[in-house]
């Protein structure tokens, strides 16, 4: 876990009105704790991003972390680059996230330059890329913008380059959806979240986090041009896809 994180108690008290979830200062302060306790397999995904970066990063190319939040994926990418001339471009549209990410990144020495930008990931040009990571961020993008973003990423990747895409997914079979959703809630209970916290967080994310099915993700990746695409890791309703150009 990133250093200086506070415990997530944002929804521990009853709120009269639950506003839409935002990546503001209150979330930034507790984000490492929040994601560790809410996303099963998160640490395994970060480790995998590092291993895939080691395998697929190409010399003299750019690596992108789109929706970088506090830079956890950026850090693991930077630690695993073993070729010369690479630069990581890390994008987030939350100014509070970018400011805190700068602090974290400066705490670890590396010769690989990181360019942190507060920007809309749907508007950032992708060029000369060997690795692009979207770690639990596409689900917060307008569904109508997702196809075009993935197409632009494909076009900006060099041959042999990869997109690593981690997302919360849902299931077309309602019985399976209910069973796995219940398992996720139990995961959160086991990590110390109360029924009130789980319920209020769920309300805040409604209409903010809009998930796709596995089939929708694979269709989008194939339509963009990726001929090799598959889930490489899944825990409950959280999955990470690897797409190779």
From TrEMBL:
<feature type="binding site">
    <location>
        <begin position="67"/>
        <end position="69"/>
    </location>
    <ligand>
        <name>S-adenosyl-L-methionine</name>
    </ligand>
</feature>
<comment type="similarity">
    <text>Belongs to the class I-like SAM-binding methyltransferase superfamily. Cx-SAM synthase family.</text>
</comment>
<dbReference type="InterPro" id="IPR029063">
    <property type="entry name" value="SAM-dependent_MTases_sf"/>
</dbReference>
<comment type="function">
    <text>Catalyzes the conversion of S-adenosyl-L-methionine (SAM) to carboxy-S-adenosyl-L-methionine (Cx-SAM).</text>
</comment>
<feature type="binding site">
    <location>
        <position position="202"/>
    </location>
    <ligand>
        <name>S-adenosyl-L-methionine</name>
    </ligand>
</feature>
<dbReference type="InterPro" id="IPR005271">
    <property type="entry name" value="CmoA"/>
</dbReference>
<keyword id="KW-0808">Transferase</keyword>
<feature type="binding site">
    <location>
        <position position="135"/>
    </location>
    <ligand>
        <name>S-adenosyl-L-methionine</name>
    </ligand>
</feature>
<comment type="subunit">
    <text>Homodimer.</text>
</comment>
<dbReference type="Pfam" id="PF13649">
    <property type="entry name" value="Methyltransf_25"/>
</dbReference>
<dbReference type="InterPro" id="IPR041698">
    <property type="entry name" value="Methyltransf_25"/>
</dbReference>
<keyword id="KW-0949">S-adenosyl-L-methionine</keyword>
<feature type="binding site">
    <location>
        <begin position="92"/>
        <end position="93"/>
    </location>
    <ligand>
        <name>S-adenosyl-L-methionine</name>
    </ligand>
</feature>
<feature type="domain" description="Methyltransferase">
    <location>
        <begin position="65"/>
        <end position="161"/>
    </location>
</feature>
<feature type="binding site">
    <location>
        <position position="42"/>
    </location>
    <ligand>
        <name>S-adenosyl-L-methionine</name>
    </ligand>
</feature>
<protein>
    <recommendedName>
        <fullName>Carboxy-S-adenosyl-L-methionine synthase</fullName>
        <ecNumber>2.1.3.-</ecNumber>
    </recommendedName>
</protein>
């Amino acid at each position: 876990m990133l250093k200086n994180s506070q415990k997530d108690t944002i929804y521990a008290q009853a709120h009269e009105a639950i506003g839409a979830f935002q990546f503001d200062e209150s979330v930034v302060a507790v984000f490492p704790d929040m994601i560790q306790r809410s996303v099963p397999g998160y640490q395994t995904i970060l480790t995998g991003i590092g291993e895939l970066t080691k395998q697929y990063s190409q010399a003299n190319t750019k690596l992108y972390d789109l929706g970088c939040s506090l830079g956890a994926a950026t850090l693991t990418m930077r630690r695993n680059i073993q070729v010369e001339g690479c630069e990581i471009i890390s994008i987030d549209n939350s100014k509070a996230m970018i400011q805190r990410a700068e602090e974290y990144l400066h705490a670890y020495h590396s010769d690989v330059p990181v360019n942190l930008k507060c920007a809309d990931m749907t508007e950032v040009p992708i060029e000369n890329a060997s690795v692009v990571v979207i770690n639990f961020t596409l689900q917060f993008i307008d569904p109508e913008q997702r196809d075009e973003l993935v197409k632009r990423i494909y076009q900006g990747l060099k041959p042999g380059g990869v997109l690593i895409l981690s997302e919360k997914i849902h299931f077309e079979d309602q019985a399976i959806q209910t069973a796995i959703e219940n398992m996720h809630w139990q995961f959160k209970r086991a990590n110390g979240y109360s029924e009130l916290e789980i319920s209020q967080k769920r309300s805040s994310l409604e209409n903010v986090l809009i998930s796709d099915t596995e089939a929708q993700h694979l269709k989008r990746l194939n339509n963009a041009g990726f001929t090799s695409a598959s889930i490489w890791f899944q825990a409950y309703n959280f999955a990470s896809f690897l797409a190779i150009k």
